[in-house]
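Progress narrative, Year 2. Work on Serine/threonine-protein phosphatase from Castanea mollissima advanced from sequence curation to structure prediction during this period.
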Amino acid sequence: MPLRGGYLIGNVSPARMDFQWSLLGNCITTLSCLATGAQATVILDLVEEHWEDLVGELPLKIVYPALEGRDWRTLTGVDPKNTRWSYHSGGSWPGENHEHKAQNDISEQFNHTNNLKLIARAHQLVMEGYNWGHEQKVVTIFSAPNYCYRCPDVTRRTPDYFL
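Result:
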């Protein structure tokens, strides 16, 4: 990739280009020192140059307030306003609250409609290797547990459901 390139990360889905993730992903890349100094400068200059357009496209509450523990799972786990192939682009992620009861009902209805017993998700870092949710109707796993050396290698852990 050229050192004077624009975005390091882009997210193109079958539906459309996701500019929200492009901006957030590149800010994360810059803040976590995954970009070289020159690349970080170019990215931040580009963000500053297009600030009005980006703020118009991106709700600021996507990065504020910071959520910790189970709160972020509650707020981002099931969001009926998102369309298929859309990654939390309904307009105010993670600012809207969805109760556990609603999530459990949605999971149960989805499983029943599709003749499933379990939904498996694999798109987030789970420190324990796996995590149950929605009254054990959803299990979250991560396909690369030693992601960026942030947690121990837990690839050998298997949810009890599969034993």
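Residues 57-65, 78-100 have pLDDT under 50 and may be disordered. Residues 6 and 45 are 10 Å apart (CA to CA).
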